[in-house]
Amino acid sequence: MQIDDLIAIAEKHKDSRKKIILRTCMSAGCMSSRADVIKKNLETAVQEQGLDAEVEVRRVGCMGFCGQGPLVGVDGLSAKEKLFEFVKPEDAVSIVSSLKGGKCDVQVGNPDHPFFAKQTKIVRINGGIVDPEKIEDYLAIGGYQALHNALTEMQPPQVIDEITKSGLRGRGGAGFPTGLKWGTVAKSPGAKKYVVCNGDEGDPGAFMDRSVLESDPHLVLEGMAIAAFAVGADQGFLYVRAEYPLAISRLQIAIKQAKQLGLLGSGIFETPFNFNVDIRIGAGAFVCGEETALMASVEGKRGTPRPRPPFPAESGLWGCPTLINNVETFANITAIINRGGDWYASIGTEKSKGTKVFALTGKITNNGLIEVPMGIPLRQIIEEMGGGAPDGRTVKAVQTGGPSGGCIPAQYLDTPLDYESLGKLGSIMGSGGMVVMDDTTNMVEIAKFYMEFCKDESCGKCIPCRAGTAQMEHLLNKILARQATQRDVVKLEELCDMVKNTSLCGLGQTAPNPVLSTLRFFRNEYEELLQPDTYGPGQTPTETAKK
Amino acid sequence: MTHVSNTRLMAETPLNMSSNPISVDPVPAKPAPAAKHPSGDKRFKILEVHMKKLQFKQDALIEVLHKAQELFGYLEDDVLLFVAHNLKLPPSRVYGVATFYHFFTLKPQGEHTCVVCMGTACYVKGADKVVAAIEKLAKIKPGETTPDNKVSLLTARCIGACGIAPAVTYDGQVAPKQTPEAALERVKAWLGN
Questions:
Q1: Is B60 a domain residue?
Q2: Most buried among A153, A220, A531, B170, using CB within 10 Å?
Q3: Is residue B39 part of a domain?
Q4: Which domain holds residue B34?
Q5: Could you tell me the end-to-end alpha-carbon distance of chain B, in angstroms, rounded to an integer?
Q6: B97 touches A at CB < 8 Å
Q7: Are residues B15 and B89 in the same domain?
Q8: Looking at residue B10, what is its pLDDT?
Q9: Chain segment A29-80, per-residue pLDDT in tens
Q10: What CA–CA distance (Å, rounded) separates B59 from A139?
């Protein structure tokens, strides 16, 4: 495959396109509301109304506005795209006849709504536009040209320089500078190196990676290939959760198509660069999002973490230097190579560059995925894009970072969204889950919810996490049952401190965060549930409330 | 795990598989010559072919267990031992992996499964009430199956369908924005009352 052939395929595909395109979202969210039937009905309606010559029905990935789904977008009819919301299979006929001026009662969304208007798309640029199961669609928008440029016009150190210049930081949550990580793997001695894509999106309330993998699998594969070239690896692994069957099947199709065109495999673009990608399917263990646990799982073992150093960059899969990045990190690479590190660095804040995808869910009017520049105030997301809490309620807190993060109370909504500002509030950027809570939510229950999660997901290897999470959950249950006193809260805080500082991996080290942040901002909710201390120092508490 | 010895898998004579509750193939009079498993159950053959495709690599253990669960519905001892034997892994390692990951189940599932997502987004939107309603109706707790083997109730950590919370997966099909009433309707139909 030469670049000319690639462009020829892209041009041919562009020419075959029809004037009007009905884009049907076929991502997991809309699929659950029978998007497959909608697409079939649209195709039938187009045929029955004799519009095959000018109308094409296309399967696309996630458009982002999942709460209003199933969605059908119309291109080529007017200057602005038209978006039908809450589409039902029986609406197909009227949607198609509306293309010719017919009457259609299906709700039409406003493309100028802040939910769309305030987004800056880099990672999700093709989401809802390309057919994830057709490589030609990806090629038609310039796909795999960044890989070609990297392979033929750049040296590996130049690629790494460009990534370093972009200021891109790991999107899995920790925010480690990506260029630095790549440089370390490139410098590590060893003939065999690996590239691993972490698609074990375990945070409850997060579905950014699922959407990227389902909507634009080639973007991730291309990013991985560029990374492999930069660090000198020839084998990649894509670790995906078993809970994402659609993402797995689309990745399998994408890998097969890329191999057929010689964009993966041996001698890519007739250079000496070889790169193969295998999918590894997770089996439902949250701890496998931690990189050393993930590697154990790729090797077919129990997903338990190990102490670092050695870091995977030096000794990873089967003892070889291994580059591990998150799905979203890899999805940023193509744009950085195409448009330059300086362009990427111009977006965002001083220390947090580029954009971040967030999954806006919970008690919020507009549910869905958004991609915004780093540093955007949280208030803009919640109030303007998200439309605030539904049913006339008020927003009480926003939870970011899943079980490793914290709750940001409403009075801090003006906080800019970047790694440092969130850290100061005792939360983390995390992978991008953003769950909104309204005034009916009990924060102690939320803390217990996360602690129960961490207790269940603790791998059991180190004692602070294994026993600590169970004890903390017990104390939270005691508080919720109105059987606890101030002493239990003190005990809880001590345990938080101990588990945080002595656990082996990130799971245990961050497990107390939801408790600590709710204690910090919503202490009154804990205190309302406490019983007075009825015993003196040294006395054992009587369990009066126990029946 | 201990009641079946590893050597049983290599036995020449076919074992009586009538104790296998979900065996779909009738036990043949003679074991098929190609099947390594003495029961002659074709699913073992399919599993073996799958392992061969993965070159019997030990690090493919998780993929193999996925395939096994897909074929058998759950991972019974015989299946685990068969995998251990073929991948030349100690049974303890196979058992360790099978019990570590939530996705693998060592118990047979009911005819229908109802998986309620308990991710944060679903939880704050009332997934706990959906679970409670089903618990009350079917008189089972998450992870259990009704005595008539009709329905298994499970909870998931997050299925990534947060935009349509609360989500419930009925027999593999995700249903959006579920209420306790909607869930009860589905489960009632399965229970036949």
A1: yes
A2: A220
A3: yes
A4: 6-100
A5: 37
A6: yes
A7: yes
A8: 42
A9: 899 889 999 999 999 999 999 999 999 999 999 999 988 989 999 998 887 8
A10: 34
What residue has token string 């796909």? Answer: A143
pLDDT digits (tens, 9 = 90+) for B113-129: 999 999 888 998 999 99
Taking the CA of residue B176 and the nearest CA in chain A, the distance in Å comes to 6
Rounded distance, CA A80 to CA A109, Å?
12
| pLDDT given at position A78 | 81
- What is the signed CA dihedral for A117, A123, A126, A128, rounded to 10 degrees? -60
Which of A201, A286, A300 comes nearest B59 by C-beta?
A300
Chain A contacts of B121, Cβ < 8 Å?
204-205, 359, 361-362, 435
Any A CB within 8 A of B123 CB? yes
Please state which CATH number belongs to domain A18-110: 3.40.30.10
Give the length of chain A: 547
The residues of chain A scoring below 50 in pLDDT are 543-547
Average pLDDT over every residue of B132-136? 95
Chain A residues in contact with B123 by the CB 8 A cut-off are 204, 449
- Report if residue B88 sits inside a domain: yes
Domain boundary among B100, B135, B153: B100
**Is B14's pLDDT higher than 50?**
no
Strand partners, A356: A372
Is there a common fold for A143-345 and A449-527?
Answer: no
∠ CA B69-B70-B72, nearest 5°, is 60
Residues from chain B that touch A361, judged by Cβ atoms under 8 A, are 120-121, 162-163, 165
Record the pTM: 0.91
- Residues of chain B contacting A67 with CB distance shorter than 8 Å: 163-164
Query: Closest residue of A to B59, CA-based?
Result: A300
Our CA-based measurement puts residue B155 at a distance from the nearest CA of chain A, in whole angstroms, of 12
For the domain covering A355-441, report its CATH number.
Answer: 3.10.20.600
Q: What would the pLDDT profile of B45-57 be if each residue is shown by its tens digit?
A: 999 999 999 999 9
Scanning every residue of chain A, which has its alpha carbon at the shortest distance from the alpha carbon of B119? A204
Residue of B61, B103, B162 lying closest to A361 (CB–CB)? B162
Which CATH number does the domain A143-345 belong to among 3.40.50.11540, 3.30.40.10, 3.40.640.10, 2.40.10.120?
A: 3.40.50.11540
**Structure ipTM over 0.95, yes or no:** no
State whether residue A350 is helix, strand or coil: coil
Q: Measure B135 CA to nearest chain A CA, in Å.
A: 19
* Exposed/middle/buried for residue B4 (C-beta within 10 Å: 0-12, 13-18, 19+): middle
Tell me the chain A residues in contact with residue B174 when contact means C-beta distances shorter than 8 Å. 28, 31-32
Q: Which of A243, A283, A359 sits opposite B162 (nearest CB)?
A: A359
The pLDDT tens digits for B16-66 are 444 444 444 444 444 444 446 788 889 999 999 999 999 999 999 999 999
Task: Indicate which CATH number applies to the domain containing B171.
Answer: 3.40.30.10
- Quote the DSSP letter at residue B4: S
What local confidence, expressed as pLDDT, does residue A540 receive? 60
Chain center to CA of A539:
50
> How high is the pLDDT of residue B163?
86
Query: Residue B37: its pLDDT value, please?
Result: 78
The ranges assigned to domains in chain A are 18-110, 143-345, 355-441, 449-527
User: Do the Cβ atoms of A429 and A175 come closer than 8 Å?
Assistant: yes
**Together in a domain, B96 and B10:** yes
Contact A225, A268 (CB under 8 A): yes
**Which residue from B minimizes the CA distance to A447?**
B120
